[in-house]
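Retro notes
What went well: the complex prediction finally ran end to end.
Inputs used:
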Amino acid sequence: MKLSYFPGCTLKNHARNFEDSTLYAMDRLGVEAVELDRWNCCGTVYSLSADDLMRQVAPIRNLLRTRERGDSQLMTGCSMCFNTLKRANHRARASEEDLARMNDFMYDEPVDYAGDVDVLHVLEVVRDQIGFDAIRERVVKPLEGLRVACYYGCMLVRPNEAAIDDAENPRVLEDLITVLGGEPVDYSHKTECCGAHQTVDKPEIIADKTYEILGAAKAQGADTVAVSCPLCAFNLDHRQEATLKIHSDFHTMPVVYFSQLMAIALGGSESVLRLDLHHTPPGPLLTGKGLL
Amino acid sequence: MSGDQQNETDDKNKAVSNTGKPEQPQARMVTVSIMGKPALVPDDSTIMRAIEYSGQQIIRGAGCREGFCGACGTIYRLPGDYRIHTGLACTTLVQEGMALSQIPSVPLEKAVYDLETLTPDVDTIKELYPVVFRCVACGTCTKACPQGLQVMDYIQSAMRGDIAELMELSYECVGCGLCALRCPSEIIQHKVAILGKRLYGRYLRKESKELDTRIQQIKNREYDGEYAELMSLDREALSERYYARDTE
């Protein structure tokens, strides 16, 4: 199966661990992710301003590029890119007038966008197109004894038009961890916001959120937290240092992308995990569980 | 390059020149507005020629006159067309009704850096040209480029630290700066392009073994004899050698 693929800027830089492991896992599952020849920033965050259509042009242009290559589905792994692309698409589909204005503005593009591309998250492809049964058959190194707290944050489940699962009690990540042979941990904070872009100006807010979220996971016996968003990953992992300074009883914990766990279970070598990009190293935990 | 050659009618040949005296021009003429002042100029003129034909001396905004140096960026509009067009004055032909203005200089603050201390990645872009991350992918820079480059794509490459693609896509930039003037995010694209090319040249380009070997040969003075011989030749002999040389 071939799917057009949108990496996003962060996966090409500080989240190489996310991209490399995703591409490895997809390849093992028979999905060829074909990166768009030309793509631009997704827009970073979905713009909520009603009258500033210019902010919607970036995501829509990526959908137009997908159409240009004759495809009608675009897969992405980054939750933030996914949310932005999907909501811009929703707006374009909901308003003919907005779409016409954007197409008119992009008069130098060879084709117009007609709202006919579906935005898919990797987890949707995993659940709906590949299927958990097929994944179970491919597992060569089950995540035995690894207790994983799955963290969705906001972007995968809110708002409704961008949700890949139930907003209150999503299960897709837990179901995935289960077929990979790991033990998903139920805890109270899996759809709590990580603090998002407050990390720039008010890292102390992030420190509090990290303390709460990782603390809740730890209290239920989790070894690690699995995420799907580079910003969540940054806040929950790289802000652990700031968290420790404010909360002396905080216990650090490795944070990984779900795709890294997939890559391990599907037989990936350490080179596709890029563990050097983590702040709190997952190496000792994974080695201890016999997974490296 | 923008600017379609237009077909002019004979009526224009009976027009009155901007000196006010009736005359019978030899060439087909078109009327253009040069920075707000109408002028009757031959229809096969470049914008630069037209400006000079109209009696103005260009003291800023002209350089190589062959489309390479980027000194003569020009914006113009055409009758019945809402779009702003751009072109290099030296290589864009005039059209009937063209209203044009030269942009001889683009004010900007360029980053000052020591290439030897940089890394070829997104962090360098962030530090030296943080404005890049204001890009909303509107594509106005691409529309403005008189070289027809995918300017927005190279700025997007810069945003994700793809220095090789930044270099590749901006390679033919002449630095006219029209993109930077049109950008709603106020990015100075052409300067980011130069940074990209420098980073690529310093850190990412492929090594050439042949070049290294030749440089070593020169350092070893293996060609000193041949240099000395060339330097002793007179003009005629030198010319003969030049035209008889092997070329690839």
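What we learned: Chain A has a mean pLDDT of 97.
What to try next: split runs per interface for comparison.
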